[in-house]
Amino acid sequence: MPVQPARIERDLNAFAQFGRSGPTAVTRLALTPEDRAARAHFIELCRAEGLEVRIDRFGNIAAVLGEWDRPALLMGSHLDSVPNAGRFDGVVGVVAALEVIRALKEDGQLPRVPVGVVNFTSEESSRWGRATLGSKALAGVIPEDELMAYADRDGITFGQALQENAGYDLVDGPRDFGPIAGFFEMHIEQGPELLYAEKPVGVVSHIAAPSRYKVFVKGTAAHSGATLMGRRKDGLVAASELVLGLERLAKEVGDAVVATATIFSVKPVSINVIPGEVELGVDIRGIEKESIGRVTDGFRKLVADVSARRGIEIEIETLSEEAPVTLDAGMVERLCQACEQKGIPYLRTVSRAGHDAMYVARIAPTAMLFVPSKDGLSHNPAEFTSLEEIALGTEVLAEAVRSFR
Ligand SMILES: [Zn+2]
Hints:
By secondary structure, the protein is α/β, with parallel strands linked by helices. It folds into 2 domains: 5-208 and 324-402, Zn peptidases (Aminopeptidase, 3-Layer(aba) Sandwich); 209-321, Alpha-Beta Plaits (2-Layer Sandwich). The protein is built from 12 helices and 15 strands. It has helices at 5-16, 33-48, 91-106, 133-138, 144-149, 158-165, 193-197, 235-252, 289-310, 329-342, 357-360, 387-402, and strands at residues 51-55, 61-65, 72-78, 115-120, 180-188, 201-207, 209-218, 222-223, 257-267, 273-274, 277-286, 313-321, 325-326, 346-351, 366-371. The strands form 3 sheets. Strands 1, 2, 3, 4, 5, 6, 13, 14 and 15 form a 9-stranded mixed sheet that branches. Strand 3 (72-78), helix 3 (91-106) and strand 4 (115-120) form a beta-alpha-beta unit. Helix 8 (235-252) runs antiparallel to helix 9 (289-310). Zinc ion (ZN) binds next to loops.
């Protein structure tokens, strides 16, 4: 069998050592010494297979087999992690891509286009508060000077971290890798839909994009005994209406949208004080503009209503409003065909988490493949996908790449 689970296992175990922070935990934030070690190991693996390695100015690493003189068909994902992460998020896509290249080489079924693997810089938002930095930069979505100036909690900018921990001199790095013939990202599902459907792989046709807001409820802190109910401007009660209202709005539009109230910090924190100020985060995601709009418009109306009725000022700050992504129909079809050819049952599904594929989709035909996440868990040391499941996904990916013959 050309796809060899033993090699996949070896690579997964090797990457799990970089930033290991518990028996099954990994903490490998982007462009830290731990990430640098993982990146160096990735380059070593690529060179061992005779791939030509190129690194762009944002630290994205692509490695291609054979003559890279034409647009390459790329596969891959990311090697950085959130704090106290599992061992699979991102890494599975990079390791599977490497194994596909080995398998194709061995069975002599290389496609007509050059084929390669890519690791995107800083996919997770843990360090700079914004996700998918490398793929956004590659797609020209963030201006380079703005990206380089993003500062982490310690004031270290993306640009500085790149200089210190990308591990290479990137000053003369190329702006991008030139035209890309296509991109496949294999990733763990990070949710439970494959488990519910009892399918071993998922072919992703759309990626939901998050809209994120901060809401500041500006009530008045007051004595919890001396203030009659009718005279209060209780920020916590007002914020609670918003939390429940958001849930109701999302449920009304069905499975097309998910909405979550987060953060929820209350001031002051005291048992005998009516809470004044409440800050909450709002994260709304969907795959259709129209239903996302219904939830966000409904939420804005609710905020205006609660504010007027309770006489409390409520401010909404927009952090991001991203558009959902429809992946390339031809690339999606190649993944479906690959499943059919191999007799592997698959679920046509959508991704509710963000991925590098969202931005690569702007510059190249792109599709995604999901493998199951045990209990739907991710961003957690309990994150788990079995070697058999990863190997099966890798088989599908290899077959889809073979279809470019
Ligand atoms: Zn990921």
